[in-house]
Design goal:
This protein is α/β, with parallel strands linked by helices. The protein contains 14 helices and ten strands. Helix 7 packs antiparallel against helix 8 and helix 11 runs antiparallel to helix 12. The radius of gyration is 21 Å and the shape is globular. This is Glycosyl transferase.
């Protein structure tokens, strides 16, 4: 695509020439001699048995510029942890698996809980947070990327493009967000980004007095992408949400900690497909329904920190404005899909909009009813000040698990 526009307040690094992955990897091999590079893979055990991860590992086995791979393993028994050690053993890079449900890491989590410093709920946010802690504790790399383990269309060029902006010695970016077009198998995907986030931001800009944070989030081509890279010193002060607001929360943390010229986004794939969550029309605690509530709450909380005052009447207005904007977006995406020979079910799109509208109101009411809930896991700098030996304990626990169970 001949898209070279910079039409927001965040730098966009495009994929204009389709440079071969081998050329990028050759440069990254040189960069890594002075700046060691790593990768974090947050995973459920079930993903080891899914259709995507085996291929991802095969692709990563060909990558020569990584010095470290850290895998966070959730919902795994002892036998499943042993299986994971064998599953990832073909990786030639130094790699370790955080067995998050194992007794050693559970003991560390319990210790942190005594001072209310541990993650409050399980999930990707908790998994990533502990992986980042281990990256800091091991001290092996200067920059690290993260991507999901359910990417069905994975090619190693995705990782090369993702980590390149923070690996290049002449670039000054501290953080890079990946983006891509969400379509696969002739279908337009990405409903939460298209039908919730984009029209919600548009609605909020009409209603809220401050738009700085809204302009910032709107500048990202795909704000909900689970792929990003950063300098490891960023991890020290990074507070993270535990719920589906993880990606939005990290973006806002970067804005809080760094100037905008240290943040960028990069086109990492022509097509992207992964495991799809159900819409969950009748259950707000799972699927896209829960996701939409968590994301809306994350945005409302950020605006509140900037002085925006919300009331129940405000949230009713936001819901109504969002609904009108979202229906317009449905029309736009329908036309775009038709012109590109893609499928888009307008009935299902509008059902999603109706659900998201109700969940925006629910998120707002939840925000008003529970104003004192801490939305973030504390930064590792705070953890280290409370428990001076915590990094040694974390590293030691991971190493002892590896030594005890490695085949």
């Amino acid at each position: 695509m001949g898209d070279f526009h910079q039409n927001g307040i965040i730098t966009i690094l495009h994929n204009l020439s389709r440079q071969p992955a081998e050329e990028l990897e050759s440069q990254l091999n040189e960069f890594s001699k002075k700046r060691p590079l790593g990768l974090v893979l947050p995973s459920l055990f079930s993903e080891l048995e899914g259709p995507a991860l085996a291929h991802i590992v095969d692709e990563l086995a060909k990558v020569t510029y990584l010095d470290q791979i850290v895998i966070g393993l959730d919902r795994a028994t002892e036998d499943q942890y042993r299986h994971a050690l064998k599953f990832f053993s073909r990786l030639p890079q130094h790699h370790r698996i955080l067995w998050n449900d194992g007794p050693r890491l559970r003991a560390i989590d319990k210790k942190l809980a005594t001072m209310e410093l541990s993650p409050t709920e399980p999930g990707k946010g908790r998994n990533v947070w502990y992986c980042f802690g281990y990256v800091l504790a091991s001290g092996m790399v200067d920059a690290v990327a993260l991507h999901d383990c359910d990417i069905l269309t994975y090619e190693r060029s995705l990782l090369a493009r993702l980590i390149y902006p923070v690996a290049h010695p002449d670039f000054t970016y501290k953080f890079c967000k990946g983006y891509y077009a969400r379509f696969a198998e002739s279908k337009v995907n990405g409903r939460v980004s298209r039908l919730l986030v984009s029209p919600l931001l548009s609605a909020l800009k009409k209603i809220c007095s401050s738009s700085e944070s809204l302009d910032y989030l709107e500048s990202f081509r795909y704000p909900l992408a689970g792929e990003f890279s950063m300098d490891t010193d960023v991890l020290e002060d990074l507070r993270m949400p535990t719920d589906w607001g993880l990606e939005v929360g990290i973006l806002y943390e970067m804005k809080r900690n760094y100037s905008l010229n240290r943040i960028c986004q990069v086109d990492i794939a022509d097509t992207y497909d992964h495991k799809h969550q159900p819409l969950s029309l009748n259950d707000v605690d799972v699927g896209l329904s829960k996701m939409s509530i968590d994301i809306a709450k994350a945005i409302f909380k950020k605006l509140a920190t900037e002085g925006e005052v919300f009331t129940s009447e405000t949230f009713r207005t936001i819901k109504a404005t969002y609904y009108r904007q979202a229906l317009d977006f449905v029309e736009i995406y329908h036309n775009d899909a038709l012109m590109n020979g893609l499928n888009l079910d307008r009935h299902k799109e509008e059902k999603a909009v109706e659900l998201f509208a109700e969940n925006i109101l629910a998120a707002g009411n939840n925000f008003l009813e529970e104003p004192n809930i801490t939305p973030f896991i504390p930064a590792w700098n705070r953890i280290k000040s409370a428990f001076t030996d915590i990094m040694d304990e974390l590293k030691d626990a991971v190493e002892k698990d590896y030594e005890q169970y490695h085949p």
